[in-house]
Amino acid sequence: MADSAKAPADPHQWLEEVQGERALGWVRERNAVTTRQLQARADYAPIRAEMLELLNAKDRIPNVMRLGPWLYNLWTDDKQPRGLWRRTTLAEYRKAEPQWETVLDIDALGKAEGENWVFGGAQCLAPDYRRCLLMLSRGGADAVVVREFDTVAKRFVAPADGGFFVPEAKTDLAWLNENTLFIGSDFGPGSQTDSGYPRQIKRWHRGEKLAEAKIVFEGEAKDVSVSAQVDHTPGHERIQFSRALDFYNQVSFLLKDNKLQKLDVPTDVSAAFWGPRLLMSPRKPWTVGGRTFAAGSLLLADSAAYLRGERKLQALFTPTATRSLAGYTVTRQHLILNISDKVASRLEEWSFAGKEPKHREIKAPFPGTLSTVSLYDSELPKDELGDRYLVSYTDFLTPGNLSLARAGSDERETLKTRTPRFKTEGMRAEQLEAVSKDGTKVPYFVVWPANAKPDGKNPTLLYGYGGFEVSLQPSYSGGVGRAWSERGGVYVLANIRGGGEFGPSWHQAATKANKQRSYDDFAAVAEDLIKRKITSPRHLGIMGGSNGGLLVGATFVQRPELFNAVVCQVPLLDMRRYHQLLAGASWMAEYGNPDDAAEWEFIAKYSPYQNVKAGVKYPKVFFATSTRDDRVHPGHARKMAALMLAQGHDLLYYENIEGGHGGAADNEQSATLLALEYSYLWQQLGR
Prior knowledge:
By secondary structure, the chain is α+β, with helices and mostly antiparallel strands. 48% of the residues are buried.
């Protein structure tokens, strides 16, 4: 076994001390260099003004979540940078100018309490949704403070009055009833996994000290996390506990008569109860009940029969080489499938209203990206919205729109249409293919600005991710449109292996020992862009965040001759120590374990921090990260920048002191970061 502690001493490891005075001094010094250089450019101020205008636009489509009779929304703008948590009715939401009722003013709360609160979501108890557990994050971190809130009185329920309160931690919560929670959090030594997530679940009664609550479920330190789910569907009430063994495998148990019953499915099969039904999707081929179902299938079983041991399954979706299941949405009696067909969305529907399930295709816009959100509330069996759902559509050049759909028909009522954010006249989008190093065809999209020609001189931004089975699909971005496309830049979206565009196999083809395929695919797209004279290395830049930050980091180190700009956002870069930093241990199913000699052998070949060298001509990189990112440690970007500077390379570095994994905590911060990034790209890639 190889021990990472035996590696050569890292002279930059002191930069891993997130809030260390010396480290933050280094950050401020680098920030000053970057802002001084980029904010002096003539295009910085107008780009920032345009980004802020887009982010604060009053005519944005308010995303909503249904809680009983209300549609809730978090609204941010120039006057409410941290947001108003507000609500309205569906009848009001249908109007061009709905009347909203403020439930909680996050800005006012932060000011009154002297905290930089960022709203992290709410878990509310059905069916009246009066009692909610609000998650409040300091500066946008994943760790949150949990406080009970009364949505009728519009006030917090103080612990002195019996209100639930959980100090800052990465916390998992589920309501059992009005006076009882299942909770996983930081209960002290031994209560968290190696990844920093809950390892224990407690049953916590109102008025009881959290330290005295009884542990009812426990995982292992090497697990990613444990969680609890409570299904309150009348007649189908269930309590379920799960251990996430890694990112792609889990074990689940049902609590019956105070005993745990293991759900008998392979660890790589995702399973979800839907009233009397059980929906399952295997990540690898699964032989069960005398049949073999393909990886990426969606399977249906009667839940009671399955739990009795029967194995009668029906395939509701079977993937092909070009079609995969992007997701599904349930209503009271219908299942809406979202299918990726050559990286564009199609909707299909299964109806369970009759004796036998019926399947049909839903007529919807194509090609582009469709998404659905159910309005079904399983605790209201006579709910008039039980078979209604929201559907949105967008593509690279079409602003998003939101419609109210009715399951069982193609009926859709347009609720909101996004105002165009940039001029699309003369622009076009097309899908092309590159051939990777091993002969695999890799699709990618090209969005052409008006009047552009394949002359090898187009400033071109290539974006990718390639990990964790995340799919990149066509979508409308006012920021990309205004800051890049409208100014004459070509935008490219790469659908490389490691993503989920073609189902689990597309992802699994580029994990662990095969992770290099993601970087080969990305480089192949870059080479294809050059070959087609869409651009040239002088005018080609790459961008990616998180795993995408690792993607662009590995690619520019391996193939520096292909690029003249690299925007490396909240990245992983030191792959020898990633599993020891924050949530890194949870990603070993994707990358491998650096402490295992055999696995470190393949990780070591691409880890950017271990492979960057002095004397090599690299593009001038822009590293961007956040001090408050408690998912991907800012030490990755800090150390890589420090090492490259020590080696004599020119680069730019910017670290937002707030922002979490998203890089910014409010619209002002987002506009600044975007303007810095695009000013840098124009500096490097402009004609």
